[in-house]
Amino acid sequence: MKSLNLSLPDSSITFYPEFLPQKLSNQLYLSLLEEVDWTQNDITIFGKTYKVPRLEAWYGDQDKSYTYSGITMSPKPWLDSLLFIKSQIESEIPQHFNSVLINYYRNGNDRVGLHSDDEKELGPLPSIASVSLGADRLFRLKHKKFKQNGLSESLTLPGGSLLVMEGITQKHWKHEVPRTSKPIGGRINLTYRNIVD
Fold this sequence. Notes:
Blueprint: E1 4-5, E2 12-16, H1 22-35, E3 42-45, E4 48-51, E5 55-60, E6 66-68, E7 71-73, H2 80-92, E8 99-105, E9 112-115, E10 128-134, E11 137-143, H3 146-149, E12 152-157, E13 162-166, H4 169-172, E14 173-177, E15 187-193
Antiparallel strand pairs: 1-2, 2-13, 3-4, 5-8, 6-7, 8-15, 9-14, 10-13, 10-15, 11-12, 11-14
């Protein structure tokens, strides 16, 4: 399968632009849109509470809960479509995943700010396998010492693509999906993870 290794220091990032066939990608987008139990969580920043600017869901093995920014999510039982995507990823890369965080970006106003997936539940060297379905969205990476070294990267994640971030990547890099003023359709992003005991 065609892949591209991003040549960024302090990272191990592999991009598969055509991981899923377009027809299958579109079918999965439509089915997950209906099947997933979406939630819009609240997040508190500097004492003020806001709605998270996207819809979210957490699925996985029993007892594999996940906490970020004060939000704790308990896993819902796996859907067949989520297990199918997981099997496709695990047949391509030598990793095992026991959970998935799903984000639904309804339009260009929905976003996720700069962050690292470095929560303690993910272990010291987490592997994150990110599958995109639906509309193309811009994905930005910035080194945590950006002001000193100026290291950054941007790429467009099309529907059906897979981005794998492994090893020390989360230790040194942050990433985001920024807001856009362009008219744009919905996007579902599935980030498969392994919660360690």
